[in-house]
Amino acid sequence: MKAICDSLDRLREEVVACARCPRLVAWRQEAAQNPPLRFRGEVYWARPVPGFGDPRARLLVLGLAPAAHGGNRTGRVFTGDRSGDWLFRALHRAGFASQPTSTRPGDGLELRDCYIAAAVRCAPPDNRPATDERDRCLPYFNRELALLARVHVVVALGSFAWDAALRALRQRGERTPPPRPTFAHGAESAIGRYTLIGSYHPSQQNTFTGRLTEPQLDRVFARARAAVRARTSPTRSRTA
Length: 240
Fold this sequence. Notes:
Layout: H1 2-16, H2 22-33, E1 52-53, E2 59-63, H3 71-74, H4 82-93, E3 114-118, H5 131-147, E4 153-157, H6 159-171, E5 188-191, E6 194-199, H7 204-207, H8 214-230, H9 234-239
Parallel strand pairs: 2-3, 2-4, 4-6
Antiparallel strand pairs: 1-3, 5-6
């Protein structure tokens, strides 16, 4: 356990120091220098945002990228923005989070059997990373999967995260069933030792329009909980 934590800490340090994408470096700093009025005076993180959570997690939630005034401000993915409000309420209801809110590091939140990461670790302009930026970031996600050896269920929030997860799993040697799994809310695919589940991203574009409702998101995490239990053998449970 200590070795896993130490390795995740080393990976975190590498992520935070990353400057591979000049466009994203410039944008995350620009967002920090020009905050909206409600965040005026706050010191922004303004660096790549690493994953966080339970190092013995069996569930991994993969998002798109940090929000310019959410994770880019607080330094924790899905923390301090409306998308995170929806996500952490759902995780709390499903038993994966100790509380329904995530406002800043040190706020008491603990993830239980769950780890959260983003396909791209820097806030992108218009919340739209480029494919080459995704590909430069993907090795970090691959390394997280290798270190999080108990993870066997991945919930992808949105089509971008779904595609990133498929790429990462293929790169790890997992066999993708033909035809290539297509993203949809509630889509599910067995890919080697992993179960990949799709969900609409809890962005304001989806939640304000009613495309994604809280009951819909709850059903995704109820299914994830069931998949975690189903893909954990009795022997593995006793020795974990």
